[in-house]
Specification:
alpha+beta, 2 domains, five-stranded antiparallel beta sheet, four-stranded antiparallel beta sheet, 2 helices, 14 strands
Length: 213
């Protein structure tokens, strides 16, 4: 029994239509990522794909890891980081250090270059700017160290806080905080990530290293 050539033409036309629709969908997805200004970076370690790109753009929530530590308002050097305070006062807290990471299970990432940091005390507010590491001149903040929680892994060189990574933050405001003084540090990531608020109180005695909890 011979097949009608017209049936073959219809089958080929249907297959071509499916291929055309698939190509259009893939092209639209690529165009969406490209126009958003967040095309994949070949140097980063975060997984690719449209869903991953969306999470990478928006980021996830950030949290503190461990305790927050305070130091007197004096110039110091810790490792490769040199802290220079303009107004030296050993009787006030002037430098704060803490570590942040994403929540466990989060799959996004946070661009630390676009995080806004706010220092507030006694209803006074100060925007703390990010500065490159090595030298921290107050008032500023910087990423003073990087870690990776996964065995055998290290944090990469970029400024994206990704799953499994921990960034140590060191910051200092313009003026110090005396004993029993209260202050709040707020980190505002870009996108849909919730801000991280860190309220603390200076202890009764200003010591070289103070565990603020």
């Amino acid at each position: 029994m011979m097949q009608d050539p017209r049936d073959t033409e219809k089958a080929v036309t249907g297959l071509e239509l499916i291929i055309l629709v698939s190509v259009l969908v893939a092209g639209a997805a690529f165009l969406l990522v490209f126009l958003s200004g967040c095309a994949p970076d070949p140097l980063r370690t975060f997984p690719g794909g449209l869903v991953a790109e969306s999470a990478y753009i928006s980021g996830d929530n950030v949290q503190t890891v461990g305790n927050v530590y305070g130091f007197p308002m004096t110039s110091r050097t810790k490792g490769l980081l040199r802290v220079i305070t303009v107004k030296e006062d050993p009787m006030q807290l002037g430098v704060v250090r803490f570590t942040v990471s994403l929540f466990i299970g989060d799959t996004g990432a946070i661009d630390m270059d676009k995080v806004r940091v706010l220092w507030s005390r006694n209803n006074e507010f100060e925007i703390i700017r990010k500065t490159p590491p090595t030298v921290l001149i107050c008032p500023n903040w910087t990423i003073s160290n990087k870690y990776n929680m996964l065995p055998g892994r290290i944090a990469d060189a970029d400024e994206w806080l990704e799953p499994g990574e921990q960034f140590e933050i060191t910051l200092c405001p313009t003026t110090g905080t005396p004993s029993y003084g209260q202050f709040t540090i707020t980190l505002w990531p870009e996108g849909v990530a919730a801000p991280l608020t860190i309220p603390r109180m200076t202890p009764a005695r200003i010591q070289p290293v103070m565990n603020l909890g």
